[in-house]
């Protein structure tokens, strides 16, 4: 009886007929070890410390690269919202600029070319682009309610700029993709499963961490700028009252409002200490004069 030739899978051990595991293949061990060593060295040499919080993080995007990408993002935002921008002389724009200027001074970031845009929209949002381009939607002004509430919003956005979270996110994405490749080589999951694992296990938690850090830095900045940090809790309580439906925190890029309030209350003693150490009597006396002038105030 003639024995038919058997099909051998790629990587199959000719003696046992069993597949050769990727992690047990000597050649791949050497290559994988070299890649890991190089990647580890690159990672360690691009670690830096976040201002204020002292968190160590990986970042390999230079300010120049960040600036170039921000210019493109700025063009896209202007194309999308340009027709809804309030004019530069509008009271709301002056209102935002006045509050933000005090926070920027407290952050020591007057060297940037700051721009302030107010978008006429019911959306309850605000964001900042690298380089100091701040956008505030009119829909969030009633939630902010007063200067201290608006300072909470703007302090958070300016904190993103101070911490260079945009550059960190780009850098972290590279790390996530590298880990995703390693995982796919070892476990060979489907692309859909790999994407879900990356989003739930890495990208979304990372985003929430940056948002929480911006809350913390922003709280200290507004206290330094002589805005009442206690109003931040009230502002987020007002925001929470507008939220509808069930929100699963682990599926969101931002922490839930109730979680933000809990964290702010934890950081409040330090913020109040900063507030009390600042020369806030003089600063707030000048602020009261501006408020009495009738300029945009909710």
Notes on the protein architecture:
It is a single chain. Residues 7-11 and 289-298 have low confidence and may be disordered. Helices cover 60% and strands 7% of the residues. Helix 3 packs across helix 5 (147-163), helix 5 (147-163) crosses helix 7 (191-224) and helix 8 (231-242) runs antiparallel to helix 9 (257-277). The chain has ten helices and five strands; from the N terminus they run αββααβββααααααα. It has helices at residues 26-44, 63-81, 91-107, 141-144, 147-163, 165-187, 191-224, 231-242, 257-277, 280-292; strands spanning 47-49, 56-58, 115-119, 126-129, 133-137. The chain starts with 25 loop residues before the first helix and ends in a 6-residue tail after the last helix. The chain is mainly alpha-helical and 298 residues long. It is globular. A three-stranded mixed β-sheet has the order 3-5-4, with helices on both faces. A two-stranded antiparallel sheet has the order 1-2.
């Amino acid at each position: 009886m003639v024995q038919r030739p058997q099909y051998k899978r790629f990587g199959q051990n000719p003696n046992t007929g069993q597949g050769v595991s990727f992690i047990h293949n000597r050649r791949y061990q050497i290559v994988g070890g070299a890649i890991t060593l190089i990647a580890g060295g690159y990672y360690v040499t691009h670690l830096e410390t976040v201002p204020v919080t002292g968190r160590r993080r990986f970042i390999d995007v230079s300010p120049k690269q960040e600036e170039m990408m921000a210019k493109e993002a700025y063009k896209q935002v202007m194309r999308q919202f340009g027709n809804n921008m309030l004019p530069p002389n509008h009271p709301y724009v002056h209102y935002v600029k006045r509050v933000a200027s005090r926070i920027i001074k407290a952050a020591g970031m007057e060297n940037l070319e700051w721009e302030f845009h107010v978008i006429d929209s019911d959306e309850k949002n605000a964001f900042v682009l690298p380089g100091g381009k701040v956008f505030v939607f009119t829909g969030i002004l009633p939630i902010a309610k007063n200067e201290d509430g608006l300072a909470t919003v703007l302090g958070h956005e300016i904190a993103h700029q101070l911490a260079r979270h945009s550059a960190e996110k780009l850098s972290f994405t590279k790390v996530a993709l590298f880990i995703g490749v390693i995982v796919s080589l070892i476990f060979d999951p489907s692309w859909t499963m790999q994407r879900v694992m990356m989003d739930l296990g890495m990208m979304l938690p990372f985003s929430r961490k940056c948002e929480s850090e911006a809350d913390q830095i922003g709280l200290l900045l507004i206290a330094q700028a002589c805005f009442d940090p206690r109003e931040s809790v009230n502002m987020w309580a007002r925001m929470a009252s507008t939220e509808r439906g069930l929100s699963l925190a682990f599926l969101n890029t931002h922490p839930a409002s109730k979680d933000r309030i809990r964290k702010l209350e934890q950081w409040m003693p330090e913020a109040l200490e900063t507030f009390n150490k600042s020369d806030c009597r003089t600063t707030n006396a000048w602020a009261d004069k501006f408020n009495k002038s009738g300029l945009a105030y909710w």
